Amino acid sequence: MKKILILGAGGQVAQWVIRALAGRDDIALTLLLRNPAKLPTPVPPNGTVLAGDVLDHALLRQTMPGHDLVYANLVGDDMDKQANSIIAAMRASGVERLVFVLSMGIYDEVPGKFGAWNNAMLAEDLKPFRRAADAIEASGLAYTIVRPAWMTNEDEVDYELTTRHAPFKGTVVSRKSVADLIASIIAAPDLHLHANLGVNKPNTDGDKPYFM
């Protein structure tokens, strides 16, 4: 039985991941979120819900032991603090595998007019995301960082990946596609070890996302 801790389980991407893993008898899910009412009902039979915040260090250290993989899909302007809290709890608990969703643009890796537009929209907001990425990469953990393009609610799985130092491609990607990547890593944890991945829908290059 593989035990997976999902942090920020109420988020839209996380809920696609939960749907993908629901009912599997080889995976047990611990679903941690601030507001359990945000979870769809019913909770999957292989899921256990826990109300809490990743900045509650005592709760996180109590919850972490025994899990095989931590998947974090969080929000907030304190992403670096959240990342460091998770890293500390994982080190204390001996849990090594981490999948952490951040954002495109944290390395100024988005080229052209879209990159300029994205920086104008998000530059200050992305700074704690960059600090979080730096902390994760320096942590010694077996991490995968996921950097999605602007996300849509399209019911499709269609994506390509770029590496840490490659120019970012495209402008958008569906949340379901990001969830497919994460569920694939959960199913095969050796996949994309120590990788820092941009995720986009192919052939969506442009000056900005189509819905903006």
UniProtKB/TrEMBL annotation:
Q: Name one GO molecular function term.
A: biliverdin reductase [NAD(P)H] activity
**What domain of life does the UniProt record list for this protein's source?**
Bacteria
Instruction: Please list the coiled coil stretches.
Output: none
Q: Which SUPFAM superfamilies match?
A: NAD(P)-binding Rossmann-fold domains (SSF51735)
InterPro entries with a match to the protein in the record: NAD(P)-bd_dom, NAD(P)-bd_dom_sf, Polyketide_Oxido-like
Where's the NAD(P)-binding domain? 8-189
Q: Which PANTHER family match?
A: FLAVIN REDUCTASE (NADPH)
Q: What is this protein called?
A: NAD(P)H-binding protein
